[in-house]
Amino acid sequence: MRLPKKLPKLPKITPRVRRFALYQVGLLVVVLLGFMVAGNAMVNRHQTCQMCHEMNTVVGTWQASSHEKILCTQCHHKKPGYYGFILGIPHKITDGVTHMMGAYEEPIQAKSSIQNEVCQQCHVSWRNVSPSGDLVIPHEKHFKKAKLACVRCHADVVHGEQTEGKFMRRPPMELCLSCHGGGSNTAPTLTCKKCHTEKAVPSNHKKDNWFAMHGTIAKDPKNPDEQCRRCHGWTTDFCNACHAGKRPSTHYGGEKWRSFHAIRAKADKTGCFVCHNEKSFCQRCHDPFKN
Questions:
Q1: Backbone torsions φ then ψ of 278, nearest 5 degrees
Q2: DSSP state of 209
Q3: Under a CB-based contact definition with an 8 Å cutoff, are residues 78 and 88 in contact?
Q4: What is the CA 93 to chain-centroid distance, rounded?
Q5: H-helix or E-strand containing 128?
Q6: Which candidate, 130, 131, 151, 129, places its Cα nearest to that of 140?
Q7: 182: left (phi > 0), else alpha (psi -120 to 50), else beta?
Q8: pTM of the entire structure?
Q9: Beta partners for 196?
Q10: pLDDT for position 224
């Protein structure tokens, strides 16, 4: 196949066509810039989030938090400004479709965790924080040495759940003990005084008869249960460790405890009555009329 000796000449672009093309490009740029400015302004308003009714609770918790002056996009956009708005367009389209299809689950959860860099826009990582009470929290050890994400402990600082009319903002003790209570092989198991400056072992716990008396004291109406729960209420398993089948340390002898228990009972019988009722438990084997 032979190629033509001369290629056909392209028609010349007239000045009129050139001006029209430039106008179209300019108009497109203006429209895109307007879309970016208007869209970024809209996503920076919490009222935009409330256009979807499922977001009302999320917005309400934000308004009741210490971050109510912080824009939603400052935390939830990957990058600041218009660049972050552009990067988030696919997610916004997906969210809109999810809303229209009703394919969401409540409570609404963020698609990705907030990065530490976002929190560090306002917060420093090297200070020791002493919130209300006697807690001391060494952030630097958690942040730099353990490399923990801020939201690992502070997931509820903005969108905390509401319980009994109050929003739960502080990390619960269960969360601390998920690492420090043996939940992690790398985190140290700490004593109370490491984090609680004023929380020491109460004086009555140091008495020799404390084990024998603690049940009586716990049941005393003058000693409300809240006093025990102040230290031990972080888990329902604390009391159950002894009271739900596991033998206390005083029940020495293992499976032969039945042979040894008389020695312990003669030393201090009141300790037995902390858990066992004399009539319903002891008298199953011991005849009260037998000398």
A1: -60, -40
A2: T
A3: yes
A4: 29
A5: strand 128-129
A6: 129
A7: left
A8: 0.53
A9: 135
A10: 73
* Assigned token pair, 148: 């923990």
Residue 189 confidence class, pLDDT cut points 50, 70, 90: low
| Cα distances (angstroms) measured from residue 6 to each of 2, 9, 10, 11, 87 | 11, 9, 12, 15, 48
What is the residue type of 179?
C
Give me the residue label for tokens 């956009």: 77
3-state SS assignment for residue 207: coil
Tokens 């934000």 found at: 62
Stretch (H or E) spanning 281: none
Q: What is the pLDDT of residue 79?
A: 78
Each residue of 121-137: pLDDT tens digit?
Answer: 888 777 666 566 677 77
Rounded Cα distance, 201 and 240, in Å: 20
SS3 196: strand
| Nearest-angstrom CA–CA distance, 187 and 175 | 13
Confidence of residue 13 (pLDDT cuts 50, 70, 90): confident
Enclosing H/E stretch for 137: strand 137-138
- Residues 6+ positions from 144 with CB-CB distance below 8 Å: 125, 126
